Amino acid sequence: MKKITVGIPRALLFYYHQDLWIHFFEQLHVKVILSEKTTTETLRDGESFSIDEACLSLKIFLGHVKNLVGRCDFIFIPRLYCIKKEEQVCTNFNALYDLVFNLFDTPWIHYNIDLEKKKTELLAFIHLGEQLGFSYIDSYKAYQKAKRLSQERRKEKIEDQKEKLSSSKLKILLAGHPYNIYDPYISKEIIDYLRKENIEILYSDLIEKEKIDISCAEISTDIHWTHSKEMMASIHEYQDFVDGIILISSFPCGPDSLSMEMIKRKVNIPLLHLIFEQKNNDTGILTRLESFLDILKSKKEKNHERNH
């Protein structure tokens, strides 16, 4: 019997939940196909389906959906509204499957998580499995196993990052939404340059969930966007252990326009903010990075001289 094939766009929520999604489908013996890594063509395709006011990350997402059309039995499109009580996520995440339904003529499956309406993650995955013809029990078991495996993997990543804190290298926290800091089209040149300069890179999504509310409150008690709170909490947690912070955001992100401003006001270590609207000039980005690293190196040398 031919395996069902599900395509997952390698964009937006993928960078938060890829381990959970892939493990879930694997437990059901469903074949997963990922869209190809982001390229200029991906963005160009996404722009052809987008309004001008859409942020770069949403345009990239639509390009990834286009990349999967005709390559799989179903394209998986999640919808999130409220994943933590009294908080919300970006409105783009509310509208993803409405956009895909209206823009693309292709079979697709989805789930919907909205705690305000008692639509939990567990129920979402059970519904997801049932759309593919699996029973409640099979979907429940697949979710429980996938959840455990993804939590274990996340814990490993956080522990690996903590080990970097004792490094004698210059340390920089790369802060932003995972779909910006991990998408190779947006951040590859940044990460490659930092590695070439022997910089220890830390990532803002790697923080224990139980620390988010308390740590975020040290920067702002007014932010109610779940993913922005994660980023702000991570900055507070790591700022005393790194030499500088690089903020990465895509234009025109509404939540970021507020949260980034609060971060700039509250953080007391060197900070560089890079905003991507289209594919920025690599030379300009690298020039700013070079200047930023010069500042960090100079400051570190002065601190070393002062302490000796």
Q: Which structural class do you get from the secondary structure elements?
A: alpha/beta
Q: If strands are numbered along the chain, what order do they take across the biggest sheet?
A: 2-1-3-4
Distance between the termini: 71 Å
Domain unit count: 2
The main sheet comes to: 4 strands, parallel
Strand/helix succession: EHEHHEHEHHEHHEHHEHEH
How would you portray this structure in words?
By secondary structure, this protein is α/β, with parallel strands linked by helices. The protein has 2 domains: 5-153, 3-Layer(aba) Sandwich (Rossmann fold); 165-307, 3-Layer(aba) Sandwich (Rossmann fold). Helix content is 53%, strand content 15%. The chain is built from 12 helices and 8 strands. It has helices at 14-27, 40-48, 56-68, 91-103, 121-131, 136-164, 178-181, 184-196, 212-217, 226-238, 254-266, 282-307, and strands spanning 5-8, 31-34, 74-82, 108-114, 171-175, 200-203, 244-250, 271-276. A 4-stranded parallel β-sheet has the order 2-1-3-4, sandwiched between helices. A 4-stranded parallel β-sheet has the order 6-5-7-8, with helices on both faces. Strand 7 (244-250), helix 11 and strand 8 form a beta-alpha-beta unit. Helix 1 crosses helix 6 (136-164), helix 2 packs across helix 3 (56-68) and helix 8 packs parallel to helix 12. The longest helix is centred in the middle third of the chain and has 29 residues, at 136-164. The radius of gyration is 20 Å and the shape is globular. The relative contact order is 0.11. The mean pLDDT is 91.
